[in-house]
Backbone:
């Protein structure tokens, strides 16, 4: 799902790392604009096989247009799965937080606390539920070496990059969270604050990671991102889990023409990490797809540094 950006050459953007993350397991990406009509949004939902709510800097106010559109998509996904269909939803970082905000219908200011976890390679502290979960079950049974690496503070292969997190204690304060999600792992920020880092819906194929599985294989502008063999392997495992459910979805475009017109490849990928030369505090994607680009008077793209907030 695309997010808004300001002072950039488009109305919304998609970080290419997310498109590559699903491509690595055999999928093609379709950008979802949060500002289209309900009819267009519903038609797109019926044509895709899964939904990714990516990381970003959007404020999760319940009346924010992005949150409103995401809420509709998640509601339709819940209804589809409840009716016996298969439609997976994945939330990364901000998307992980959004899944929990939507479940409670509470303000993100009530649910989340500040964390010191920007550009912070870390670990997963697995809960007992992780070993039999949809996300980690086969990793525990077939790749215990990856489980050990993900939990090893000497390796720190889990890439965290967030300013806020969900304290595990809030699952007791909001019982709907305990009735909806299983906590599969927690992590800690630089000061030792514990927060929920991986969740899984108890009924539906909905998953959330506060950490970024897409960054180790595909993002390089932040030199704290781990690129080890095991960091990549964990990323591949999670991508495969999501895609195994997406393949079971029966949603289809109405025609080949519609299918081709939907794809992200209709947009130009921009090497936005070059902004790091001009702005040391740059914290955006390496490569970005911009949607609904505004043309400058000279026929080119509008100029200016890209801001992903």
Residues:
């Amino acid at each position: 799902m695309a997010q808004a950006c300001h002072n950039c050459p488009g109305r919304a953007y998609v970080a290419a790392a997310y498109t590559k993350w699903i491509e690595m397991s055999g999928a093609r990406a379709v950008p979802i604009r949060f500002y289209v009509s309900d009819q267009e949004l519903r038609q797109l939902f019926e044509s895709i096989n899964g939904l990714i709510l990516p990381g970003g800097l959007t404020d999760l106010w319940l009346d924010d247009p992005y949150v409103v559109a995401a809420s509709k998509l998640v509601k339709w996904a819940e209804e589809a799965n409840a009716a016996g269909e298969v439609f997976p939803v994945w939330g990364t970082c901000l998307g992980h937080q959004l899944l929990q905000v939507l479940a409670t219908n509470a303000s993100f200011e009530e649910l989340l606390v500040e964390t010191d976890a920007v550009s912070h390679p870390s670990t997963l502290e697995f809960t007992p539920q992780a070993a039999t979960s949809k996300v980690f079950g086969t990793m525990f049974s077939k790749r215990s070496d990856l489980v050990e690496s993900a939990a090893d503070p000497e390796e720190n292969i889990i890439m965290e990059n967030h300013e806020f997190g969900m304290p595990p204690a809030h699952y007791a304060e909001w019982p709907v969270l305990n009735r909806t999600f299983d906590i599969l792992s927690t992590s800690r920020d630089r000061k030792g604050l514990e927060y929920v880092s991986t969740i899984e819906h108890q009924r539906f194929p909905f998953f959330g990671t506060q950490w970024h599985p897409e960054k180790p294989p595909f993002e390089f502008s932040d030199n704290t991102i781990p690129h080890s063999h095991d960091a990549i392997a964990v990323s591949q495992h999670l991508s495969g889990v999501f895609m195994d459910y997406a393949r079971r979805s029966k949603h289809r475009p109405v025609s080949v023409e519609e299918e081709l017109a939907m794809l992200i490849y209709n947009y130009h990928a921009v090497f936005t990490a070059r902004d790091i030369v001009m702005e040391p505090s740059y914290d955006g994607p390496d490569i970005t797809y911009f949607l609904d680009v505004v043309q400058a008077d000279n026929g080119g793209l509008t100029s200016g540094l890209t801001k992903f907030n």
In short: The first strand starts at residue 3 and ends at 4. Residues 296-309 have pLDDT under 50 and may be disordered.
